[in-house]
Description:
- The chain is mainly alpha-helical.
- The longest helix has 34 residues, at 25-58.
- 86% of the residues lie in helices and 0% in strands.
- It has one domain (2-94).
Amino acid sequence: MARQGARLVAIALKIAVCACSAHDTAACEDAAVGQTLAEQRWKEGFERHELAHDTLVENPDSGFDLGEHDHSAEELFSARVNMILAEAETRRQCG
């Protein structure tokens, strides 16, 4: 369901970009879609990390692996960096 929502946002963004851009439309569209997907990956990573964190805090004896929490934090950081880069690429391609 979340991916479908991201695709709908991407389509809406494509339409808006096409309607008001004098730049290379295809490159701008690609960048906008890339940004939308990067934002979705960050959101999903954030949710996974929060779940890992909450599980660890609420039930430290659950057998939950601290390494899994740390790994989700690393993934979240990486997703955030990718989101920032994607946003910059959208600005560069779409003006």
